[in-house]
Amino acid sequence: MASKEQMDALFAEARKAANFAYAPYSHFRVGAALLCDDGTVFSGCNVENRSYGLTICAERNAVLQGVARGKRTFIALAISTPDSKDPVGPCGACRQVLSEFMPLDSPVCFGGSGSQQVNTTMGELLPYDSLHDLGT
Ligand code: THU
Asked: 86 and 110 in contact (C-beta within 8 Å)?
């Protein structure tokens, strides 16, 4: 289980990743950082497109960064949304994709520019996921 120090470090990585966001349409930067079961960290930012529906969220970007390098299990997630004061949680599509590679008890934290931070778990973000064990 990730320690408080690890979660703080992960959140700092997510905040750094948000700086790379390509968000000329929404002006809403998002950064996500995933801790792998081997201790490595992968991060991602949102990448928008003028065909709005093709936008890639930061969370899915981070998942793909890790999977493309052979990672299969992420044990913690942090999300930073510096353009909102309050925390903003991952969208439904990202919750589904994250759940493919994250145990349900994995800690998830998210926060904006203010001091409030939400600390939850993958399972709490995607309850009643009857298909969770289908592929494993
Ligand atoms: N966004 C994310 O990157 N992650 C989320 O979970 C919510 C939304 C991005 C998509 C879009 O570029 C911007 O935030 C505004 O919706």
From this structure: no
Give catalytic status of residue 59 as yes or no: yes
Give CA–CA dist 4/10, Å, rounded: 10
Tokens in use for 98?
């994250």
pTM higher than 0.90 for the full model? yes
- Residue 133 structure tokens: 């064990």
Residue of 19, 54, 79, 91 to test ligand 1 pocket, by largest number of atoms within 8 Å of CB: 91
Rounded Cα distance between 10 and 6, Å, is 6
Tell me the pLDDT tens digit for each residue of 46-67: 999 999 999 999 999 999 999 9
Sheet of strand 107-111, all strands in order from the earlier edge strand to the far edge = 41-45, 31-36, 74-80, 107-111, 117-121
Q: CA-CA distance, 136 to 3, in Å (whole number)?
A: 27
Beta bridge partners of 120: 108
47 CA closest ligand 1 atom index: 12
